[in-house]
Amino acid sequence: MIFFIRVRKSIFGLLLLLILSGSMQTVLAVEPSPERQVALRHLLKNDCGACHGLTLQGGMGPALLPDNLNGKPDEFLVATILNGRKGTAMPPWQPFMNHDEALWLIGVLRKSVH
Ligand code: HEC
Predict the structure, then answer these.
(1) Which of 54, 80, 97, 106 to mutate to test the pocket of ligand 1 (most atoms within 8 A of CB)?
(2) pTM assigned to the model
(3) 33-111 falls under which CATH superfamily?
């Protein structure tokens, strides 16, 4: 009997740990290294800028200025960057950056410090 209680307790602990580590991941997004930040800003200007405008005020793609992103959740925009949008010109950038890097880029766009 005690054995079963122990097992159930440890399974509960394990579940709790899994849930906690899942939510921690979004809170503790890792900042890209300084070198990577330079590369990502470069990408933003040259590649994203080709469609969204050199100053991101819009072009073939919509403007990506703080006001344009206001009210759109981080994860929605991260998914747009990583997966692109089917049926539109927005391509997937998953091969070139990971989740945390896309999230960092959104932060840069929201602060408009590019
Ligand atoms: C080939 C053109 C093209 C390139 C290159 C491109 N985009 Fe886009 N992007 C688009 C288009 C078009 C849309 C609008 C899609 C739609 O109609 O929903 C879009 C949408 C977006 C959105 C969603 C905006 C919103 O208000 O919902 C974000 C964020 C975004 N792009 C970021 C980027 C980033 C970051 C890069 C570079 C890593 C990039 N895009 C490169 C064409 C492009």
Answers:
(1) 80
(2) 0.81
(3) Cytochrome c-like domain (1.10.760.10)
